[in-house]
Amino acid sequence: MSAPVVPAANNPFTVLIPARMASSRLPDKPLADIAGLPMVVRVAQRAAQSAAVRVVVAADDARILQACAAHGVAAVMTRADHASGSDRLAEACTQLGLQGDDIVVNVQGDEPLIDPALINAVAALLQDRDGQYGQRPGASMGTAAHAIASLADYTNPNVVKVVLDARGLAHYFSRAPIPFGRDHTGTAWWQGAAQAAQPGVKALQGFAPLRHVGIYSYRAGFLREFPQLAPAPTEAIEALEQLRALWHGHRIAVHLADAAPGPGVDTPEDLEQVRALFR
What we know:
Blueprint: E1 13-19, E2 33-34, E3 37-38, H1 39-47, E4 54-59, H2 62-70, E5 74-77, H3 85-96, E6 103-106, H4 116-124, E7 139-147, H5 151-155, E8 161-164, E9 170-174, H6 192-196, H7 201-204, E10 210-219, H8 220-225, H9 233-238, H10 243-247, E11 251-256, H11 268-278
Parallel strand pairs: 1-4, 1-6, 4-5, 7-11
Antiparallel strand pairs: 2-3, 6-10, 7-10, 8-9, 8-10
């Protein structure tokens, strides 16, 4: 991972962790035991190692609140009928009294190996530097990505890809293989000899397709506004909520991480893999 990015003292941030009990592939996921602790507690403990001034779980079930309280983790109860994690976090922002310019980092509740340095880096995308309103002026959100290493990941629709502009702002997110190598289908066109064989290779030096990492930073004001935006057609087609922001003209700044984050937990098989790492 990239070296930690320490936020400026006048730009503190809060980590919010949405946690919901309903999961089609892993019921009661926030409470899944990982080396003696509920998963949501493991996530909060990792997030607490970042530079965040506070870490709060946004729960939809009293059992999550009880688990958090038992282990000294701050939590608030949110409605159970929220359509998305961002809706849940918008309610949590209001409950916590966060001001419009306060920075919030959304850490998924199924990332018990989240790198605290990654949290800092994504928060820093929106922090003031040299009098600018955020490292990437004009960005309403921040997120992260890393270079894709394999053709299997590049073509896998479960691996979300993102293409950036020269300023590190997202052009588009997709489950499709983007950017698409028109003349090099079925190959890892960005690697070695495959890259060298292409015209305009100088422009491709160091270039690779990027895998999106599901962590976000926002200002609290935008986070409260986001659920009020009309869903985008691209969002419905791709099943990617961040496309709503792009559809409505908001920009998303992207931190490029040096490597993939630790594995998240979506399935029972993922859970066993993470449990083995904690052993």
